[in-house]
Design goal:
about 50% strand
Length: about 60
């Protein structure tokens, strides 16, 4: 999935782990999320988040 994000410059925090994505200041960005599900139940899921400059506002589903 990829979606638009407008940063006010303070970063973007996720859940209890306090993971923070920081942008190069305020402005329009895109966030791309990749997810991998492991066959082993104990391994769970992995996520890769990418933040990069971009003006598009919509959300697209990637395969």
């Amino acid at each position: 999935m990829e979606t638009g994000y407008t940063s006010r410059g303070e970063g973007l925090a996720f859940d209890d782990e306090r993971t923070v994505l920081t942008a190069e200041g305020p402005g329009r960005y895109r966030i791309r999320v990749h997810m991998r599900i492991h066959d082993d139940e104990d391994a769970g899921q992995e996520f890769l988040l990418m933040l990069f400059p971009g003006r598009a506002k919509g959300t697209i589903r990637l395969r």
